[in-house]
Amino acid sequence: MKEPNGIAVIIPAFKVTAQIVQLINSIGPEVANIYVVDDCCPDGSGAFVEREVEDPRVKCLYNKVNLGVGGAVIEGLKAARRDGMHIGVKLDGDGQMDPAMIPRFVQPIVERRADYTKGNRFYSPESVATMPTGRLIGNAVLSFVSKFSTGYWKSFDPTNGYIALNLRLIDVIATDKINQRYFFETDLLFRCNLVRARVLDVPMTALYADEKSNLKFEREVFRFMAGHLRNFFKRIVYSYFLRDFSVASVELLVGLMSVTFGIVYGVGHLGGESADSAGTVMMAALPVLIGTYLLLNFLNYDVQMTPSEPISDALPDAGVLDFLSGDLRAIQSQSADDKQPTKVSM
For residue 215, is pLDDT > 90? Predict the structure, then answer.
C-alpha cells in the first residue's frame, strides 16, 4: 500500500446529475482525490461526470449492481484507502453539504482529537428552522433511539450524511457487515463503537433546495427501528459480556431478572384472594423498584463509557497525519479572511 498522502472525498451518485457538477466544482484544493461512485445509476451519473468535469482529481467508480448509498460509500472508502488516502469525507451528490466545511470536519482527525466526525444540524435554532418539519421530527426521534444502539450518548443527528473518518478504521471495522442502505450512517457509528473509536459532532446547517430524497420514511421507519434494536443487543452482549464483564454487567442481569420477576409475580396474582394483601403488593413492587434502580445505574455506567479517547495512535501508520495539521490551519485562517482556501502541498 502507498503511504497515505491526503484527503479524499467520496460522492455516492444516484440520480444527482442536476447537482453533482456544481458540487464537484466547489470542492477546494485541500482535497487530493474525489471519488464519484456511480451506483448503477439509471441516469448514468459516472459517464455524465466524465463528460462534464475536467478536474484531474476526479475518479469515477462503477457498481455493476445498485448497492445503496452505504454500499457505494464503502466502495469509495476502500478505493481511497487502496490509493493511499488517509482521511475520507463523504458528501451527498445532491448539494446539501457545503464542501467549504471539509477542513472543519477533518481538523479534529488531523489533530488526533477524533477518529470520526459527523455533522449535527441541531446545534442552533437557526439551523433547525431550515429543516423541513417531517425531517425534523423523524431525525429527532431517531437521534434519541440511536443513543441506545450506538453507545454514543453525546452525539446527535445520527442520520447526517456529512461524515469524515480516519481511513485506517476501514482496516479494523467489519465493512462487509455494515448496512448498505439508508441505515448506513447509524450502522457505521455502531461499528465504530465496537472498536472504541471516538466520534465528534461538527455543527452545520444543511442546504435544502429542490432536490428529491429517495428515502421513504414511512417505508424505512420499521427497518430503522429493527436495526436499532438489533444493534443495541449486539453492543450490550459484546461490550458487557464478551469483551468485558464488570459490575455494570451484574447490575444489568440482576436488574432485568428483578423487574421480570416483579411483573410476572404481580400479574400472576391479579384477581386472586391475596391480590390486595400488603405482602403480595410488596413481593411484586419491591423487585421492580430494585431492578429499576439497578438498570438506571447500568444506564449511567453505559453513558460514562462513551469512547472518549481516539484509537488512531494504536492503528498502523499512526504518524502520517502530522504533515496535514499546519496546512489545514493555514486554509482555515485564510478562509476566514478572504474565503479563498490556500492550496495544500500533497
Answer: no
